[in-house]
Amino acid sequence: EPEVTQTPSHQVTQMGQEVILRCVPISNHLYFYWYRQILGQKVEFLVSFYNNEISEKSEIFDDQFSVERPDGSNFTLKIRSTKLEDSAMYFCATAQGRNNEQFFGPGTRLTVL
Amino acid sequence: KNEVEQSPQNLTAQEGEFITINCSYSVGISALHWLQQHPGGGIVSLFMLSSGKKKHGRLIATINIQEKHSSLHITASHPRDSAVYICAVMANTDKLIFGTGTRLQVFP
């Protein structure tokens, strides 16, 4: 069964460093999402992406964050200058259509020291 | 006030028991997801529904759009069902709004 994959599974970085989290969507999916979950809290929406553009972003998704799909397969989330509070589990999700079921990747645990 | 509320927050059961987890929401939605999150953190989609009832194996999900309420039922619960169950709604956009989850532990 096709699945969403994410790399790395765990990333440890120093505050102020840039990180790039990668997601490979299911092949015929066109809608892409990033969510995050701070330890012990609920999952929160970050950004949605379709047709090489951001469709919607949350207040969390400030200028330090960016997304792109540079090579038509990987969907990436970049955090330019990480802060301690960026430590969280980051989930990629993809869907075939706008209001279709979303399928989640296994997540990347980001730890900022 | 949270847009998506789940109850109970924690639930323990003996193997074989019938489990019900409830979700209420305060916004208009196009669909509702039930998700399962295991201790390792990964999230698995169980159901997406916008009306009526869906069944998959021992899992049943129902939704009442007028009452803004959904339930997830697990029949003949098993220790491997132990996980966090999350209700998430798709409001007027396609982003998901998540509940805080229900932690289920099933003991042998």
Task: Report what the structure shows.
With 113 residues, chain A is mainly beta. In chain A, a hairpin with a 6-residue loop joins strand 7 and strand 8. The radius of gyration of chain A is 13 Å and the shape is globular. In chain B, 0% of the residues lie in helices and 59% in strands. Chain B is built from no helices and 11 strands. The mean pLDDT of chain B is 94.
Count of helical stretches of chain B: 0
Order of helices and strands of chain A: EEEEEEEEEEE
Radius of gyration of chain A (CA) equals 13 Å
- Number of strand segments of chain B: 11
β-strand percent of chain B reads: over 45%
Overall mean confidence score, pLDDT of chain A: 94
Q: Please give the number of β-strands of chain A.
A: 11
CA distance, first residue to last residue of chain A: 37 Å
Parts with pLDDT < 50 across at least 5 consecutive residues of chain B: none
Assign a percent range to the helix content of chain B: under 10%
Count of helical stretches of chain A: 0
Judged by helices, strands and strand pairing, the structural class of chain B is: mainly beta
Unreliable spans of chain A are none
Decide which structural class fits the backbone of chain A.
mainly beta
Shape of chain B: globular
- Mind summarizing the main beta sheet of chain B? 6 strands, mixed
Oligomer: heterodimer
Sketch the major β-sheet of chain A. 7 strands, mixed
**Average predicted confidence as pLDDT of chain B:** 94
- What share of the residues of chain A does DSSP label as strand, in percent? over 45%
Q: Hey, which two chains have the biggest interface?
A: A-B, 27 and 23 residues
